[in-house]
# Entry
Amino acid sequence: MQTIRWKSPSNIALIKYWGKHGVQLPSNPSISFTLNGSHTTTTLSYTAGKAKVELLFNGGQNDKFALRAKQYIASLGPYLPFLKELDLHINSENNFPHSVGIASSASAMSSLALCLCSLEKEIIGTKLSKSDFLEKASFMARLGSGSASRSVYGGYVSWGKSQYIPESSDEWATPLSFEVHENFRELQDTILIVDERPKAIGSSEGHRLMEKHPYAQQRFEQAHVHIATLLKALKAGDENTFIRIVENEALGLHSLMMSSDPGYILLKPGSLQIIEKIRNFREKTGIPVSFTLDAGPNVHLLYPAPDKEAVQDFINRELLVYCMQKRRIDDHIGKGPEKLSSGE
# Structure
């Protein structure tokens, strides 16, 4: 039995992807940045066999994730036909809470896809350049989780065809081709854990509800406009525009959930209290803090590295009281996945 290991981080979308069609294709383009510390490590062991798949999550059984992963691997026959001749043992380990709106599927599925692409290289002897390998891994990750396509890369990443991003694609993600302004190169992200219990409604169901959403078309058009505006802000270092677009996207995502049929609310009272506190702090101090949210109650507080000391003091004094057991995760923009040796 031989082993492959990849560690892949989560990401946080600034322009949200919400709604899909076909086989995991986005209804609108998105932009995210990849985190550094919040990651999944996947260990893939394989031997000759008859396509048997065993899966552990954080060292134990997780029937929901195991079923999803097995269905995903079974769907890859057209791309990795050799899988039918192997038995796979997969151990997926998160270092942050899953199913609470911190894109755990992005890190889990991207690390698994990277393992499978490395497996193809070992079994078939496929020789790809680094860029082609990552593009294929992004494509494979997308089939498991749309947002996972972005976690294959570090820094700022787009996914979904956009006229404003020349090499963008619905099939895989691409890192932004320009160097962002220094204001955004070392962006910090403190994730405030308002509630770490699994969400009542998962993201897959939320995407499905967009199919008949009364505001779907307007939302998809809005995303393209926001992409163009955010790209200009990232190039120019325009913090005010960055804040306006990113916060509008976060609140817009949750407004789509609330106005679905049936509508649902993932925000908690603590989420709203934190948002109000962040805006008050920004107005009072002039420090360009902002917030965003994934499909869950937990708030991502974004801020520049030079302001870290002041913002950390603000978090400790005014925000942790709204967090479950005063829990938070301090993270920042990262460089992307890493292949590990068997001893790591």
Summary: The chain is about 40% helix and 25% strand. The chain has one domain: 1-344.
